[in-house]
């Protein structure tokens, strides 16, 4: 097969899960081969990433062979190198993520295999998952035994609200449940230490995204001070090159690459391999979505997939038809070839 066309679009989002932001600027990438095989990918970077895909990346991709996993790896290296003057991190790598995932989708369909099985014939089928959001009672009712609570710093009252929300989660989900806090880079070292003391009785599994990704040395120092609570992060880091800096500074106990941002499955596999050497756990950001889920199923990532659930009453766009749904705190990949999903044409 050879790549015949490359096209990215920014979907017509109408509803989004309540979170830090109104949406995550996710784009859809469609690649078609000369044999008529079509692959779909999900990337970040919004309309700026769409321009990169439809401009530079499309121009240099059409005509390249796509017949093996090594072809995908070579394409990744080629696009990364060609985009170095404006890339390496951020929007260019988010655009590359969407392309990379499209290529895996094509190859899986061509070989009539799910991506996880394409990567690892002995892949996992069922993964445990955790709910991200604030509707604790609903998560407990639907069988979740782990919750991550969004909790940006909003002043001194934030300590009290952190205590009350985590205590509620512990009560609803049980003494063995994992309870986590995601603070989206809104704490500093002093706040982190105060929170660690205030929440000691709850038993927090991890604090996520405490400082910015530019504070890797400080994170490494702070990590030792909050033990045994784990320090988690990495969703705003890109490629294995970026995670090499995280490794060097020992910034996190748990790495959280986002497969639709960090460079796709290709980058994800390289990051996981580095983490194995580093003896560090990997829990992909938004890992319950099809792309992260197949990486978890095929690799030595932790058996722990994030689902951004919102609330019982919230509406959200069902962009991807065929996405697996959780059941009693677990989620399964399907036997469908590729990633097993296609976008709703009404949203494109």
TrEMBL record:
Needed cofactors: Mg(2+)
Span of domain Mandelate racemase/muconate lactonizing enzyme C-terminal: 131-229
Pfam families given in the database record: MR_MLE_C, MR_MLE_N
Keyword Metal-binding assigned: yes
GO MF annotation: an example: magnesium ion binding
UniProt key word Magnesium: yes
UniProt keyword list: Magnesium, Metal-binding
GO biological process, one term: carbohydrate catabolic process
SMART domains associated with the record: MR_MLE
Protein name as catalogued: Mandelate racemase/muconate lactonizing enzyme C-terminal domain-containing protein
Native source species: marine metagenome
